[in-house]
Specification:
The chain is built from 8 helices and no strands. The protein has 217 residues and is mainly alpha-helical. α5 runs antiparallel to α6 and α6 runs antiparallel to α7. It is globular.
């Protein structure tokens, strides 16, 4: 996990540092960069030379390819949504490095889709969490009959497999925009993954206030 850009001398966690913590925790959960999602190609196209030049002071061309330009193959992903320009997993997109001249600021908090994916890919399948799972499945567009099939899964692994199956079928049948068509209505999804992230942020803040300069995860 990359925390090299976090200043250990200041006891207050800045917005930039919080963004980095949440972003790296997203990687810990297995989230890829949003700008490397297969759905990104429907939104904008990177200018390769301009992108390499933009990041040249920070990374080598190889690292820029691995962290920015490369698009992950669909068959290697459990599931993915239409492009989410509010995802914590997104880098800043300046107009000068894409052919559509889009400007997308780097998000500083978890998006609704980030929260939904954390819930659906790391589900608690106990009876007490069924309402949360069903609520999230409904909001992301899974029809009732399919919700019942997914929720009836025997454990988290089978749950993820069934959700992945629906995710791919929905894209194949209706296109990228079909998945998570109602995601904007998600206000807050409570789940154990987000609780863990909150705990990490709290632990880090406490560590900073105590004068320590590093966080070991």
């Amino acid at each position: 996990m990359q925390f090299h850009n976090i200043d250990g001398s200041n006891p207050t966690v800045s917005i930039s540092e919080l963004r980095s913590i949440l972003h790296e925790c997203g990687h810990m959960l297995g989230f890829i960069h949003e700008h490397q999602s297969p759905s990104r190609v429907h939104e904008f196209t990177y200018k390769t030379k301009a992108t390499i030049h933009y990041y040249a002071d920070t990374w080598s061309p190889t690292i820029i390819w691995d962290n920015v330009l490369r698009v992950h193959a669909e068959q290697h992903l459990t599931a993915y949504s239409p492009f989410d320009d509010m995802s914590i997993m997104l880098y800043e997109i300046p107009a000068c490095i894409n052919t559509q001249s889009k400007t997308i600021p780097r998000p500083s908090q978890l998006s609704a889709i980030d929260k939904a994916y954390a819930t659906l890919l790391y589900p608690s399948t106990t009876t007490s969490h069924e309402a949360t799972l069903r609520h999230t499945l409904r909001l992301v567009g899974v029809p009732l009959g399919r919700q019942n099939i997914i929720i009836a899964a025997n454990g988290p692994t089978e749950f993820r497999a069934k959700f992945k199956e629906w995710n791919r079928e929905a894209r194949a049948t209706h296109g990228e925009s079909s998945c998570f068509h109602a995601i904007s209505f998600i206000k807050c999804t409570t789940n154990h993954c987000l609780t863990h992230i909150s705990k990490i942020v709290h632990i880090y803040s406490t560590t900073r206030r105590s004068g320590a300069s590093t966080l070991n995860l």
